[in-house]
Design a protein that fits this description.
By secondary structure, the chain is mainly β. It has three helices and 28 strands. Strands 6-7-8-9-28-27 form a six-stranded mixed β-sheet, with no helix packed on it. The protein has a five-stranded mixed β-sheet with strand order 2-3-4-5-26, with no helix packed on it. Strands 18-19-20-21-25 form a five-stranded mixed β-sheet, covered by helices on one side. It holds the Pfam family WD40.
């Protein structure tokens, strides 16, 4: 049954959120998984067997985005409470608060060098922040409606943003000018990823065109292939840029082959809408979160064999003639004249395959005061009865929260 190992498999599941899971991200070393929720909490799931999970409480509204820094030493979260927080993903529970926007913050992301943050908001602006100095740098204002997502390009020279004005805008980070606007996008763009440019693209304008063309082509592939029966809430690109996963309100996760232009897997497991999906940095794992409050962690598997072998395993031959024929040739584009094979359905029993649900350490609600540095004590009264036993060593532990207000 070698083919079973080539299909994605459910590795683990995590339960601890009390409401829908809205965002997720893997740490660069794959030792932790962060997830944000409508329950206003940030969870840090430790991958080691029997390791405890951390629940960070501080946001006052739904968490909309989460992103690990390239070093893995920080986690950024955005929220509808108009703030962005930088967390230390450990039992210290330290956080820095950016009072970032005048409306809900929809996304947050680190630059690839970890020195800057970019945020997108319902106040129609994109803002860039210094991570080291914990301060605001500049603002980008040309969107005419809510901005849903903003990301740095891999080289840090560009920022791409999209939103409810049906536009994708490209910004030059050195001049702070919008250098291109793609306004023919159908529907509302709620999220996207920045792809690595090819080695043949040497000029900035060429990279701009390539990034957006890849983005729009992949959006076209996901939306126009009619692979979902309800709205798409999130998608994530495999690091090879050959695959994309999407999560939908139809309760399924779909995996599309971008080189072949077709659906290859349909994954079931969530009860209710799938709100977020995310590949790990290496692409060997991906996570999904949904309205059922669960975080499912999957092992990719299908990227371990060569692309030609995967095609041969999962596609139907279009002709009974002996090899070679067109189906055996590594495809460079979609073969429209070939019948489309049926996607493989994977419907696992959602049960933790490694351990029981991890014990959750409550790190307490932040107590704000008029002082710039607020100190809070985490006592037994702030820990639920089910979690009190494993956190006795944390009672009376002192943790610090740095509150940095900005008036822009």
């Amino acid at each position: 049954m070698a083919s079973v190992m080539e299909d994605p498999t459910l590795e683990r599941h995590f339960r601890g959120h009390k409401d829908a899971v809205t965002c997720a991200d893997f740490s660069p070393n794959r030792k932790q998984l962060a997830s944000g929720s409508a329950d206003k909490s940030l969870m840090i799931w430790n991958m080691a067997p029997k390791a405890r999970a951390f629940r960070f409480v501080g946001h006052q509204d739904v968490i909309t985005g989460v992103h690990f820094s390239p070093s893995g030493n920080l986690v950024a979260s955005s929220s509808k409470d108009r703030t962005v927080r930088l967390w230390t993903p450990s039992m210290k529970g330290e956080s820095t608060v950016f009072k970032a926007h005048t409306a809900a913050v929809r996304s947050v992301a680190f630059s690839h060098d970890g020195q800057r943050l970019v945020t997108a908001s319902d106040d129609k602006s994109v803002k860039v922040w210094s991570v080291h100095r914990r301060c605001f740098i500049y603002c980008l204002n040309q969107h005419t409606n809510w901005v849903r997502c903003a990301r740095f390009s891999p080289d840090g020279r560009l920022i791409a943003s999209c939103g409810d004005d049906h536009c994708v805008r490209l910004w030059d980070t050195s001049t702070k000018h919008c250098i291109n606007c793609f306004s023919d996008c159908k529907g509302i763009l709620i999220t996207f990823s920045m792809l690595e440019p090819t080695a043949t693209c040497s000029t900035l304008s060429c990279r701009c065109e390539l990034l957006v063309l890849c983005l729009l082509c992949c959006l076209f592939c996901v939306h126009c292939a009619s692979v979902h029966s309800a709205g798409i809430n999130s998608f994530s690109f495999h690091p090879s840029n050959n695959y994309v996963i999407s999560g939908s309100s139809d309760s399924t996760i779909k995996i599309l082959d971008l080189l072949e232009g077709r659906l290859i897997y349909t994954l079931h497991g969530h009860k209710g809408a799938v709100i977020t999906v995310a590949f790990s940095r290496a692409g060997d794992l991906f996570a999904s979160g949904g309205a059922d409050g669960q975080v499912l962690m999957w092992r990719t598997n299908f990227d371990t064999k060569s692309y030609k072998d995967v095609l041969r395993q999962h596609s139907q031959r279009s002709t009974p003639d002996p090899s070679p024929h067109l189906s055996d040739i590594h495809p460079r584009g979609r073969h429209l004249h070939h019948p489309q094979p049926t996607a493989i359905q994977i419907n696992p029993t959602v049960a933790d395959t490694q351990s029981t649900d991890p014990r959750v350490i409550e790190l307490g609600q932040a107590v704000h005061s008029t002082m710039t540095y607020a100190v809070m004590l985490v006592g037994p009264e702030q820990v639920s009865s089910t979690d009190r036993a494993p956190v006795t060593d944390l009672c009376r532990r002192v943790s610090f929260e740095v509150v940095v207000p900005f008036f822009l």
